[in-house]
Structures are given as C-alpha cells and as structure tokens.
Design goal:
Mean pLDDT: 84
Order of helices and strands: HHHHHHHHHHHHHHHHHHHH
Largest sheet: none
Shape: globular
Distance between the termini: 36 Å
Low-confidence stretches: none
C-alpha cells in the first residue's frame, strides 16, 4: 500500500487556506472598482456631466483628510477590543465586509433625475461608508496571528493570492462585461450600476464565509490595552514603519496605471474598440499578476522581504520606461502597449508576497521594541497608504482631465477644450513615466534606509522567539 499523505497542520491546513483565499474578496472588489472604474463611471456614465472630474477629485482628497483621523482611530479600537470567542479582529472583519459592500453599491448607483447637490450628498455619504468599511477589514493582523515564522507566512500567502487573482477575473473584464450589459439595456451607466451589484454581493458572501473559517491565532494577542502614548512611542521608534509609510506614499506604480490606463486605451486606440481592448487589458492584468505570484517564490527564494520589494520595484519600472519612450516616438500600437504592460503587471504580482511579509515584519519590530504588536494600528496605517495611493493616482488623472476640459457628449465622443493629443500626452505621464520614476525612488529608499537586514533582523527574531515562548497562553 502507498504511503498516506500527511495531513497539513494549522495554519497550512485546507480549511485555513480556503478561508484565507476568500477572506479578502471584498477588499479586492473595493480596490478594483474604485481604482479602475469609479472615476470613469463619474465622468462618462453617471450623468453628473462636466463637473464630474472636479467632484470626483475633491471627494477623493476629502476622503484622505477624513482617513488621517479615522484610520488610526479604527486601528486603536481594534487593538483594544476584547478577544471574543472568534478572536479580536474577526468581528471587525465581518462587519467591514458588509459595510464596504453596501457602500460600493451606493457609489455606483447614483440616482438619476435628481439635482447635482443631491448627487454630491449621495456620493459623500457613500464614500464615507466606504472608507469606514474598508478600514474595518483587518486582514493582515488576522494573517499575522497565524504564525511567527516568516517562512510559514510566505507559504500561507501564495495559494490565497493565486486564488484571489483567478477570482478577480470578473474585475479584470468588468468594464467590458458592464458595457455589454449596458448595451442590452440601452444605457451604459445602468449596465455598470447593475454589474457592481451582481459582482459585489457574491464576493461579500464568500468573504464572510472565508473569514469565519480562519481560526485567529495567538501570536499577537495581548492582555494590556494600547494607549495613545504607546502609539506615539511606537511611531517614534519604529523606523521600518516610517520607511514603509514613505515608500507607500510614493510607490504608486499599480494605482497610477489602474487609474489612467482605461482612459488611455479608450482614446489612443479608439472608443469604438473599448469593449474589446478593455477585455484584453483585463486579461493582461490577470495573467500578469498570476504569473508574478507563481514565479515570485522561486525567483525571490532566499531573499529577505526588503530585497524582494526592491527587485520587484525595479522590474516594474523598466517596461514602463521603455513603453513611455516608444509611445513618445510614435509607436502607439495596442500590441506593444499590452505586451509591455504584461511585464509591468508580472512585476506587480511578484511584489505582493514580499510586500505583505514586510508589513508583518514591521509588526514584529513593534512587538520587539515595545512588547505590544499594535497590529491594528499598523494595518490602519497600511490601509491609509493604500487608499491614499488610490486617491493620489485618481487625483492626478483627474487633474489631467480637468486641464484638457474633459467632456464626453451623449454620442460618446470626446469634446474637450484641448485636443485629444494633449489628453494622451498627460495620460502617458500618469500611466508610465511617473510610476516608473516613483518605483525607482521607492527601491532606493528601501535600500538605503530600511534597517531590518542582516544581523539586526536575525537578532530581532531570536529575541522575539524567546518573548513568545514566555508570553503565549498555555492553550496556544
């Protein structure tokens, strides 16, 4: 008889892997829709008209001001919440999933036949709910609690990431499918609105179920409450967090591409081809990120998270620079565009694993220096950075649209005050050159200023091992 295959133990067991693979689906939906479709929906399909670019830009900036106060508060609330039967962070995750989904549906279903003022109020309330719901999804602290071993952390990230990207297919092809549905309804805006509901509700259900299946671990549970002095002390001494925050604000490659690429594809290769080209663009995103996720463990094997992030940042910048130069020289070809963008998406897919493990490493450093992980606060800072990246990229894209007087008439034609070539030139900067420069800058900051490497990193994990042996509950 053949040997019986050993059953995988927690947290590498099938139940936990399935839960981790579905837990973030609402987060994926939120980031995909708000980054790639939201501004286009406002400007071209919501019925707001010429004021849409300005309204959207102001709304995103106001959201970041709100986040500067709200995200740390939410992190503090999570860190000080009692440990329930299902854990400290899972109740927040479950509530955040529901609120975020409801907010997405409201954002993409702006009522018709009402005044501009009513639409703006509707958008403001929906966006506020979105900010709260998104921040109350502490996926990283839940993952972090599963194991203190960086190698196990890497292993638990690979399969869920691949599954997430496969399930992201509807979002990769979302615009093409929504426009097709809109064509059958005779209204592209209604097609987008209905498609959001059809996609986000199943995502919400699966995220809810997945969260329930993940058993929150004991790595980070602490009995003492976290005070504001603790937070200030942690922020003062946590240099890895500072470096991550700075690079998080400038490492905007993926959000910049996502916010501007659809506009570029639409007007560079013809609005009449948008349905087909957006489907190709979706395939490029999907296959690139899956490819990057699969090859990352082998290509980055033996590298610490910081070095992995640097390699991925530089790999992302190269195809963007080449594509920008070719575009400026007049090689405006969809095959060339999608080919180089595939390479950029592959590098982006590679960056997820070292980037996530690096964020957990920052939590480790907090525990190492203060005795308190404060993972909710660190997750809140990371959420703020992600949403700021999205807002900054959309704001810069919106600035280009405002500068050219971007307007699309009822027939779907561009009728801006500046020629379409001016629009394309601005979009080239946002989609290719700016993110490439920021990627190189981000890599340089990590190389010169990130402190957790070599003997310093080894010593931290040795001391953390001793600390956890002394502090973990007997039942852990």
């Amino acid at each position: 008889m053949g040997k019986t295959k050993a059953k995988r133990e927690y947290p590498l067991d099938g139940k936990t892997t399935f839960g981790l693979s579905t837990m973030r689906w609402t987060i994926m939906a939120a980031m995909s829709l708000t980054t790639t479709v939201f501004l286009l929906y406002l400007t071209d399909y919501s019925g707001i008209g010429a004021a849409a670019a300005t309204v959207g830009t102001i709304l995103l900036l106001a959201g970041r001001l709100f986040d500067a106060f709200d995200d740390p508060l939410q992190g503090w609330l999570m860190d000080n919440a009692p440990c329930t039967k299902i854990g400290r962070y899972k109740p927040f995750m479950l509530g955040g999933i529901v609120v975020c989904t409801a907010a997405l549906i409201l954002l993409f279903n702006i009522p018709r036949g009402v005044s501009l003022a009513v639409k703006i109020v509707w958008l403001s309330v929906a966006y506020l709910l979105y900010e709260i719901g998104y921040s109350f999804q502490p996926a990283d602290p839940i993952k972090y609690s599963l194991s203190p071993d960086p190698k196990i952390r890497e292993r638990i990230l690979v399969v869920p990431r691949v599954v997430e990207q496969i399930i992201a297919v509807p979002f990769s092809f979302f615009l093409a499918l929504a426009l097709a549905l809109g064509g059958s309804l005779g209204d592209a805006g209604k097609g987008i609105s209905l498609s959001v509901i059809l996609v986000t509700v199943p995502m919400m259900i699966m995220s809810f179920v997945g969260t329930l299946l993940v058993r929150e671990g004991h790595v980070m549970q602490q009995s003492e409450s976290v005070g504001f002095r603790d937070i200030l002390a942690m922020l003062k001494i946590n240099k890895p967090l500072l470096v991550m925050a700075i690079t998080g604000l400038i490492g905007l490659t993926f959000p910049f591409i996502m916010a501007s690429a659809v506009y570029y594809i639409k007007w560079a290769f013809g609005p009449e081809n948008l349905g087909t080209n957006s489907a190709i663009w979706g395939a490029v995103i999907l296959l690139g990120i899956i490819t990057g996720t699969i090859i990352a463990p082998k290509l980055l094997k033996g590298t610490i998270p910081m070095k992995g992030v640097i390699i991925c940042s530089l790999a992302n910048a190269v195809p963007l620079v080449v594509l920008y130069v070719l575009s400026i020289l007049g090689f405006r070809n969809p095959i060339v565009f999608f080919g180089f963008m595939f390479l950029a998406m592959t590098a982006a897919g590679m960056s997820y694993i070292p980037g996530t493990v690096l964020a957990m490493e920052v939590m480790d450093y907090s525990l190492h220096r203060t005795g308190k992980g404060m993972q909710g606060i660190i997750q809140a800072i990371r959420n703020f950075l992600e949403k700021t990246q999205s807002a900054m990229s959309s704001t810069v894209t919106g600035a280009v649209l405002i500068a050219v007087g971007y307007v699309v008439n009822d027939a779907g034609d561009y009728v801006g005050t500046a020629p379409v070539e001016s629009l394309l030139f601005g979009l080239l900067l946002v989609c290719m050159l700016i993110p490439a420069i920021l990627s190189v800058l981000s890599a340089g900051i990590y190389h010169f200023f990130y402190p957790l490497k070599g003997a310093v990193r080894d010593q931290m994990y040795a001391q953390l091992g001793e600390f956890r042996e002394q502090s973990l509950p007997e039942s852990a």
